[in-house]
Please model this.
Amino acid sequence: MIYERVALIGLGLIASSMFWAMRRGDVAGHVTGYARSAETRDTARRIGLCDTVCDDLVETVKDADLIVLAVPVGAMGAVAEAIGPHLKPGATVTDVGSVKQTVIDTVGPHLPAGVHFVAAHPMAGTEHSGPESGFATLFDNRWTLIVPTEQSDGDSVTQLERYWHALGANTERMDPDHHDLVCAVVSHIPHLIAYTMVGVADDLRRVSDSEVIKFSAAGFRDFTRIAASDPTMWRDVFLTNKDATIEMLGRFTEELFALQRAIRTSDGEQLHAYFTRTRAIRRGILEAGQDTDAPDFGRAKVER
Amino acid sequence: MIYERVALIGLGLIASSMFWAMRRGDVAGHVTGYARSAETRDTARRIGLCDTVCDDLVETVKDADLIVLAVPVGAMGAVAEAIGPHLKPGATVTDVGSVKQTVIDTVGPHLPAGVHFVAAHPMAGTEHSGPESGFATLFDNRWTLIVPTEQSDGDSVTQLERYWHALGANTERMDPDHHDLVCAVVSHIPHLIAYTMVGVADDLRRVSDSEVIKFSAAGFRDFTRIAASDPTMWRDVFLTNKDATIEMLGRFTEELFALQRAIRTSDGEQLHAYFTRTRAIRRGILEAGQDTDAPDFGRAKVER
Model:
């Protein structure tokens, strides 16, 4: 057992997956859970999510050895402020937010001396949200980034890493600034672009929504999948990772304009060279085990 | 049987899938195939792709009732010129290119009177290419757009539609301009954006390729999948659908800048409203049967 008592604050996709992953092995003794909405708490009780679902935030964290903040990034400061005075000395507080510098800045000041804060970010998810969307294998062979600060206690960090390994994940330590830049590139900007493309398609008078929907198999469907993610979570991501997002958007539009120019001037060589180069990254991802080689656009099994 | 003799010119993902789909039922009597590269022809013979693989283009189309041009859009004019004088009177020529006005303009003039040209575009594919990437179910419940011109013979059009239905696809008729606009939105621009995003990530000095690869599960992976598609095919798509591509890119960057502005000015309401709206299109796609609701980001089965 890695933690005797674990408290999950917020019972969405990530926290519910953490619970089911904890239940696969001897990871935690007792797990309490809290969600702001009574409906979510009722659902959690109905499906057996958490050993105890509490109606009260303070009751949830009482005696907990690990407290996991699994609420949108914009809500974390308020939660930390509410629970801070009630935490057990020696407890570890962590989070699962997609942005790290903001979380460290807003959560840290509310925690009393003797309570350890270690920020973390599991790089896994689906386009679904809510307490019923979680599943035990979500983190298997995915990466959880551990983002300690200079004040983080070494033993707390190591224990949290062991916890994530027990949930199936690999871990890597990263400093907050670098984390926020890496995530802007691999996650935040791709999401913003997908949202934008879906919005453009929806706006277009000359192409009907039903045409967009019927013919989506050819590339657009992956965008809609990304763009179906939780709006509140993503709003908070962009508002709290503003600098890295805007910097990367600048790089993206610069590059897009260069390709647009190649199209306008019929520079086939430049286009071909560019499209060839991007294949190598795809191969790297397959080799790194982060995806399978099975054809996915058709969402069909290979059969002859 | 819908056609006695079918000739497939170009033996990549689409043509090989068409062959295996024809083999599922009584769709065609005899299928010949041709590929420019001897290596592709050898592979085709080894895996039993086509009843006869020909080393000569003219021999391939001799006596054929249906000739399918399944080469990159930029190569179709030359192929049509080479086969035009050798086509059987009454034969139908079709294609599977992603752009239609250009194909109609470049192929049509090379075909003799008495040979019917009906352009078509199966909206299905995967990120894989080559003769070994095809599978029989690729077109099942997908859409093939049939793009007749004013000169197209009515019976030829109807017969080609019956052929695509036999391969598992639904069909819809569309005029060339509208086809090229719809495809710019649902396919061409999404591909260009995915290529761009992968290129930006690859260029970035401060984030290593191995970081991009390791942490790709969180949205970026779908982009790399799209960007792994065949470079020659996509170069030709952008060069031949230039007007619609550039118009839609303009709309896309306009919209992206609006979201960037909302981020810069911390307009959370606008972001939330935008991200909420895009969920509806996703729901529409699920309801239209063009995707499944299974969580895909994690590429893992739902298990508790």
In short: The domain at 3-174 of chain B is CATH 3.40.50.720 (Rossmann fold). The beta strands of chain B are 3-9, 28-34, 52-53, 66-69, 92-95, 116-117, 119-122, 143-147, 170-173. Residues 297-304 of chain B have pLDDT under 50 and may be disordered.
